[in-house]
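Hi V.,

You were right to ask for the full record rather than a summary. Here it is.
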Amino acid sequence: MKKTLFMVVIFALLLTMNSFGQNRSTVNKYVNMMAKAKVTQSSLSGLGLPYIAGTWYYVDAHDGDDDYNGLTPDKAFATIPVAYAACTSGDGDGIALISRTISGTSYSFNLTTRLAWTKYGITMIGIASPNVYFGRARITHAAAYDSLVALLHVTGNNNTFINLHFSNNPENDGSPVSATAQVCAVQVGGARNTFISCHFFGNPQSATAYKSDLVLRIYSDECRFIDCFFGSSSYNAGNNAACWVFMETGAMAGQRFFSNCTFLQQVSAGTAFGGIKSGAGTSMNGIDIYEDCNFGIWRASTSTSGLSASFFIGTNTGSGCIMMRDCIVAGFTALDAAAGNDKIFTNQPVGNAAGGIGVTP
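Predicted structure:
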């Protein structure tokens, strides 16, 4: 009966709008009729979410309860791990994080341990206004658990993450993060995972060479990052060999794709900060492609030109390369300052004598 009444109301609304235009009083009239018919958000659950083959599970950190079944917004789980446990690998299930677009911790989705994402084919999406900075569902650590090496470790394949803000602020004090751990927001070690409109922010308590926003691990081939943000120009990386993207040791196949992404960082001193960092000679064995991306570092009261020595830092990899098409790189003297590395190729011309970048490495 409720469904029938709802369809009648919508049909009447469309007829009215077609005949008389979008009249505000008429729209309000039928919205009130929907309320009287008790057509709630639960009745409409899934209409605005991507189509998936499996079941949507809802998480509401503010009003949810892990004793609920998570199948509707008003019966949402309270935590992500419970929703993740409810998903079946390979069934195409999904997790919808209900966010109120408020950055306060009471509305964030807090983790007490790094979530080991081993399942396949799961979609996780943040339901929030998709504006540039604070319109993503915020995933961080709980107040007493600020020593996580990462928030998420994805080793499963074919997963999709949409409209999420991963903000990790580890103490980096050796418990459990060692003083030389590559702390980050997200680690990716599974193939063909996709991140869309996500923000990766790894923010150690103090500036360190082991700060990064994203760690690419072994078997992370064919992963895609679309319309994503990395880092923050409000956090100071200091004079350290930190980076946005760290390629970890291992026989990687490469073929990662970054499209229309933005990378920002504040660097108060020195020239050590790099954009992409290689951990060892086995960190890469293929081709990574960055297209239409913006990379920028800045220092207060200082010209951006030539702040850091090199965009690519770390150990030269045995094979593979990084291709950059139509990208803007600001604040680096060269894409690759080490002779013989031959890792960065771009179609962009020289920018300026002091901080420009060449067509060849």
